[in-house]
Amino acid sequence: MQNGIPMPTSLKARSRRATRRKSDSTGGLKAVTPVDRIVLEIRKFIAAAIFFNTQAAEKVGLGLTDMQMLHMLQLYGASTPGRLAAWTGLTSGGVTVALDRLEKAGYIRREPNPADRRSLLVTLLPIRLRKLAGMYGRVESETRRLLATLPQGDLDAVIRFFEAMHSVRTK
After folding, report:
1. Buried b (16+ CB within 10 A) or exposed e, 81-95
2. Phi, psi of 147 (to 5 degrees)
3. Cα separation, 61 vs 92, whole angstroms
């Protein structure tokens, strides 16, 4: 653990050796190796993204879980509650409660699943997503601008890295 946050196993041994060098005078973590720097930058990015998503959710009267559920539906398309539970790590009851809130707020619709009449299919209602698109549009265009500055080989490396990280998370 570093500052109360679990560290990846591969960093634990190195962290013990470099503990004195990895904290600055304010107690913040300091990168020692390029891998340390990447891990810290990812953590900074994730923390900032969580706060951004929380603020966006609050602006439209949603909770963070509800907003993340909308993101999952945008990323993967219409889904069953069971698939949403698998993707999010929420219990089936947690998914049901979040879907109840999203349906009441007009963001989703639950319909019979044409592929399995025993289940439901959750779909987004695009008209309600327009307000969200405005909040995320600036971030997406800035991300695209920054990515456009990278050579193709770097872009391929970024894609491979995130695909590998995603496959580890979903195991």
Report:
1. bebbbebbebeeeeb
2. -65, -35
3. 23
Beta-carbon contacts of residue 82 (< 8 Å; ≥ 6 apart): 92, 119
Q: Give me the amino acid identity at 155.
A: L
In angstroms, the CA 121 to CA 103 distance is 13
For residue 70, how many other CB atoms are within 10 A of its CB? 23
Phi/psi at 29 (5° precision): -75, 145
Question: Domain ranges in the chain?
Answer: 126-171
Tell the residue number behind the tokens 């049901």, with chain if given: 96
Look-up of token digits 């879980």: 65
State how far the Cα of 60 lies from the Cα of 110, in Å rounded to an integer.
21
CA distances from 28 to 9, 36, 61 (A): 20, 13, 33
**Model pTM score:** 0.77
Question: Given the structure tokens 């945008």, which residue do they identify?
Answer: 74
pLDDT digits (tens, 9 = 90+) for 7-23: 554 445 454 444 444 66
Alpha-carbon distance 19 to 11, whole Å?
Answer: 11
